[in-house]
Amino acid sequence: MKDIFTEIWATARRNKLRTALTGFSVAWGIFMLIFLLGAGNGLINAQLQSYDRYLTNSMMVFGGTTSKPYDGLKEGRNISLNEKDMMSTERVFPENVDDVGAVLSQYGVTMSLEAQYVNPDLTGVFPNHFDINKREMLHGRFINNIDIRERRKVVVINEDHAKELMAKGHARLIGRHVNIGGTAYKVVGIYKPDRSMQDNETFTPFTTLKTVYGKGDEAGNIEFSFHGLVTEQQNKDFENRYRTKLNINHRAAPDDNNTVWLWNRFMDNIQMNTGIGIIRTALWIVGLFTLLSGIVGVSNIMLITVKERTREFGIRKAIGATPWSILRLIIIESIIITTIFGYIGMLCGIAANEYMDATIGHEKVDTGLFEATMFVNPTVGLDVCMEATLVMIMAPHTRAQGGKDKADRGVESRIGSPTYRTYPNLQYPTQSHSQKNKTNETRHRFISRDSRYPHPQQEPQLSHRLRSVLGHIHAHSTHRRRTGTERTAAKQLRRFCHQLGHHMGTAHHQGLQGTAERPSMVDEL
Question: What is the DSSP letter of 61?
Fold first, then answer.
C-alpha cells in the first residue's frame, strides 16, 4: 500500500496542472452546492419567521362592500361586523370554531404619565388575541376573562411606549395609572413590540372600549381559532359556508364574495409551504447541476488520464500486472484526490455559510415603519454536506472504470490484435484469432521471472510481441527532451531490447523442446 501511495504522489507531482484542475472541479462543485443551499435556507427561514408571528389555525374576518343587489338593496353597501356575527361564528360552527374574539380600535388617543405622553392606538381585544397573534409579555400579564366580564379599565402597553413614559426602570410602570382621553387606566402588563409591522397598539378589554367610547354592537374585526380543517378543500368549503352565513346576517347575496373578507392563515401557510417547496426544489436542481458539472469535469479528466496511460497499463499487463491491480491503482488515486479536494470544498462552503450567518444573517432592514430580516440562519445541515461530498467522491469512479476498460481494449489492440500501430525498425506479425488466444495465455508465463520458456514454435510470435511493447516504450521516450536520468534509463532499455531480441532469435534457432525446463530469460540476461 505504501508503494501505491508513493506512486500516486509521484504521478500527481508529474501532472500538477491536471491534478489541480481535477481538485478544483471537485471543490467548486461541492462549494457551490452548499453555498446555494445555505443562501436559499436563509431566505426560506426569514419567510418562515415572518409567518410564524400568527397562529396557523386561525382566521380573521373583515367587513367589506356588497357587489350584488339583493333583497331589494343595491350593491355598494358597506358592511360592518357586529355582535350578531360573533354569536353566529360561535354557535353555528361549533364543530370547527374554538375561541371567538374581536378587535376594535379607537385611533388618535393620548396616553400620558405626568409630563410624558405618547399617542398609541387604543385597541379592545379578547384574551385569545394573545395566542392568535403570539404576543410576548415582558412584564405583568395580558387581558383576561375577568377584565372582559367586569369591564375593567386596564391596559397593556408596548415596551417602546413604556420607555417613553418612564425612561429609567420602565418595569415599574406595572400597577401605575396612566391617563388616556381623560380616563385613568391601570397598567397591568408590558409586551414586546413586533417590529416586523407598525406596532403602535395599547390593549384594553373589548367590553371596556365599547363602553367608554360608545361603540354600540359594533364588533370591528372578528378573529378565532379553529380545528378539524386539515386540507385545502376543507378550508374552502368552510369559508363558503361561513361567508354565506354572514351574508345572510347582513341581507347580502349568499354568493357575494366581497361582502366579508376572510384572512385564513392556514391557507396562507399552505401556499407558503408550496412556494417554499418550489424554491427548495429549484435550489436543489441548480445545486445538483452544479455538482453534476463538477462530476463531469472530474470524470473527463480521469478518462483523459486513463487514456494517456494506456501504454503504461499495457506494459504493466505485459510484465504480469493483473487487471484488478491496475483498476485498484486508478480508483485509489481518484478517491484520494476527490476526498482531499472535496473536503476542502465542503469546509469552504460551510465557512461561507457561517460568514453569511454572522453578517447578513443578523441584519435587519429598517424602513422606518417596520423592520424585516432578510436572512435567518443561512446554513446547511452537516448531513447534506457529507452526502454531497460522498456523491462527488464516488460518482466519477464509474467513468474511470469505463476509461480503464477502453484502455484495456487499447492495450489489446496494440499487443494482441492483427492491426498494429507501426514504429520505425519494428516488424509486427499478422495473427489469427486462435493464435492470439494462445499468445495471451502464455504471455504472462513467458515474461514472469519465475516462468519457463514456452514451446519453441511460439517464440517468434512472442519475440515480436515483446519487441512491439518495448518499441512503444522506446518511441514514447523519444517524444520529448529527456533528462540525464531518463537518458540513462533509455540507454539501458535499448540495451535490454537488443539483448532480448538476440536471445529470442538464438533460442528459436536452437529448436529446444517446449516441454524442457530451462532457466528464465531474465535470469540469463
Answer: E
> Residue 345 in contact with residue 31, Cβ under 8 Å?
yes
CA 247/CA 170 separation, integer angstroms: 47
Specify whether the CB–CB gap between 377 and 357 falls below 8 A: yes
**CA–CA separation, 165 and 163 (whole Å):** 5
Residue 288 contacts by C-beta under 8 Å, 6 or more apart in sequence? 33
Bridge partner residues of 59 (DSSP): 224, 264
List Cα–Cα distances, 331 to 93, 272, 299, in angstroms. Answer: 68, 46, 12
Show the cell assigned to 147: 377584565
Sign of CA dihedral 71, 72, 73, 75: positive
Per-residue pLDDT of the chain (525 residues; tens, 9 = 90+): 677 778 777 777 777 887 887 788 788 888 888 888 888 888 888 877 777 778 889 999 999 999 999 988 999 999 999 999 999 999 999 999 998 999 999 988 999 988 888 999 999 999 999 999 888 899 999 999 999 999 999 999 999 899 999 888 888 899 999 999 889 999 999 998 876 666 789 999 999 999 999 888 899 999 999 999 888 899 999 999 999 999 999 999 999 999 999 999 998 888 888 888 888 888 888 877 877 777 777 777 677 777 777 777 788 777 777 888 777 777 787 778 888 888 888 888 888 888 888 877 767 766 555 566 777 777 777 777 777 777 766 665 554 445 445 445 544 444 443 333 333 443 444 444 444 444 444 444 433 333 333 444 444 444 455 555 555 554 554 444 555 555 665 565 666 555 555 555 554 444 444 434 444 333 333
What is 203-266 written as a DSSP string? EEEHHHHHHHHT-TTEEEEEEEEE-S--SHHHHHHHHHHHHHHHHHHTT--TT-TTSEEEEEHH
Q: What is the 3-state secondary structure (H, E, C) of 87-113?
A: HHHHHHCCCCEEEEEEEEEECCCCEEE
The pTM assigned to this predicted structure is 0.61
CA angle 256/262/267 to nearest 5° reads 120
